[in-house]
Design a protein that fits this description.
The protein has about 475 residues and is mainly α. The chain contains 20 helices and two strands.
């Protein structure tokens, strides 16, 4: 019985903690956020150690005879839940240092903690109705984080974020209603719930794909993401590595494999449109990143590109491709959160945010820039980093399905990634500083998470079996 309640506790605990921070946490808000993230990680890890999830559902309450709020832990949800809960611990520690000064810190940690519970609600949602409920709550929960500074720029970015998110959500809602009308069910079932090809099912899938594609930053639905870079760096890390964009990717996986089923999508050929969209996004995201002078915006467009590596793996419909896509969910998250933490540390310690301002900074901040370099190597896909492993599987998956073009696209994107990331490190270590100011490494609360995450990226590359066991349990359901 306790095992069945663990996913519910993982969702509710952050909600309670956020209320505590709001009412009584004027002095200890960051400490409460850290403790909550740590306890939540223990809860989700306990679920994993107990047998990789219990298939039994927990029905919290019924809206009516057709709709209910239900939680269920399956291997895919557990995989996403582990990623969210573990990386949230690092972000909480980092945020405690990054947000040690400034205004509206208590409000920041209220919504920071709240969003942890909401994101785990997405991970453990037992049906499409519950999923949509938490998916929309995530938009509302992250909005105050995006507009944290309350400047003209941040308010404009927040407005854009809401317009894009709610527009996508409206399309998804119509698709959900249509799905229920056709199938009579909103439950997640491996292989899909339709059973056969209905007229117009291609349009229905595209409604889901476009609607969820907003948070997944598929071109041309991506422009909210770089605009949201005005938020504090811990928020950027959550947006780009853990919560929002990965929720969009997770949603597309759920819809593809648990609502429609890969067989229906292959027979209708609709996956070819998704593959084309993913390929264009990979290339355009990399090309635009190459032109960005602001470091965080360069990383933002990098995220746009890298997310579609995962989409490529999802829609190749091969065992190796799906394995590579799922691997990149974690590998990209670890690498990108490291890069954002490094960028935030540079901003806090030096006040510099433009790439051209970082010449010689490696001499003052060698640990930070070494970690940035290693993460850049990983994102490019060079062994022995974790980025290489996931891209290797994606390439094998492309060849298995006879799509050599996608291997070429992956290689071109890797080259472009090196072109927009490596110059940052080269200039940091081998160029002369423009001024004589001396800068220091960030405090331990910020530097330690960076170092641990960098080592984690290397460990996941050298020992890919760390994640592959759970990934294989997901992939084996379908292939």
């Amino acid at each position: 019985m306790l095992l069945r309640l663990l996913p519910v506790l993982a969702v509710i605990l952050p909600l309670i903690s956020s209320c505590i921070i709001a009412v009584w946490g004027k002095r200890f808000f960051s400490q409460i956020a850290i403790i909550t993230a740590f306890l939540n990680a223990l809860l989700v890890i306990s679920l994993y150690l107990s047998g990789r999830g219990s298939p039994a559902a927990v029905n919290l309450f019924e809206v009516n005879e057709f709709l209910s709020v239900e939680f269920r832990v399956d291997p895919l949800g557990l995989y996403f839940g582990l990623l969210v809960s573990i990386l949230w611990v690092f972000t909480a520690f980092y945020a405690s240092g990054y947000m040690s000064h400034g205004e509206r810190r208590q409000r920041f940690f209220v919504f920071f903690t709240l969003c942890l519970g909401i994101t785990l609600g997405i991970a453990f949602a037992g049906n499409l109705f519950t999923f949509y409920l938490f998916y929309e709550l995530l938009t509302l929960g992250t909005y105050p984080l995006v507009i944290h500074k309350e400047s003209t720029e941040s308010l404009a970015a927040g407005k854009k974020y809401l317009i894009y998110s709610f527009s996508g959500a409206a399309l998804v809602l119509m698709a959900i209603i249509t799905t229920f009308a056709i199938s009579g069910s909103l439950n997640f079932a491996p292989g899909g719930i339709f059973g056969r090809i209905y007229p117009g099912i291609e349009l229905l899938f595209m409604a889901f794909f476009i609607g969820f594609g907003v948070k997944a930053a598929v071109v041309p639905l991506h422009s909210w993401l770089p605009s949201a870079m005005v938020a504090p760096t811990p928020v950027s890390a959550l947006l780009h590595a853990v919560a929002v964009v990965k929720s969009g990717i997770f949603a597309i996986i759920r819809i593809t494999y648990y609502i429609f089923g890969n067989e229906i999508l292959v027979k209708t050929g609709i996956n070819k449109i998704a593959l084309t969209a993913a390929s264009l996004t990979i290339l355009l995201g990399s090309l635009i990143a190459l032109t960005q002078k602001n470091l965080k915006k360069r990383l933002a467009y990098s995220t746009v590109s890298q997310l579609s590596y995962i989409l490529l793996g999802i829609f190749l419909f091969s065992r190796s491709g799906f394995t590579g896509g799922l691997m990149h969910v974690v590998n990209h998250a670890v690498l990108k959160i490291t890069l954002f933490f490094c960028a935030g540390s540079i901003l806090v310690m030096t006040g510099k945010s433009e790439v051209s301002q970082l010449k010689g900074i490696g001499k003052d901040m060698p640990i930070t820039m070494l970690c940035f370099t290693i993460a850049s190597v990983g994102l490019t896909g060079i062994p022995p980093t974790n980025g290489f492993v996931s891209k290797w599987y994606l390439s094998i998956g492309s060849l298995e399905t006879g799509r050599v073009l996608y291997v070429v696209i992956l290689l071109i994107s890797a080259l472009l990634t090196a072109c927009y990331l490596f110059p940052v490190s080269v200039n940091a270590f081998f160029s002369q500083k423009k001024d004589n100011k001396k800068f220091n490494e960030p405090p331990g609360t910020m530097l330690i998470p960076i170092v641990i995450l960098t080592v984690t990226g290397l460990a996941l590359g050298i020992f890919p079996s760390i994640t592959k066991g759970l990934i294989d349990s997901i992939v084996s359901i379908f292939y």
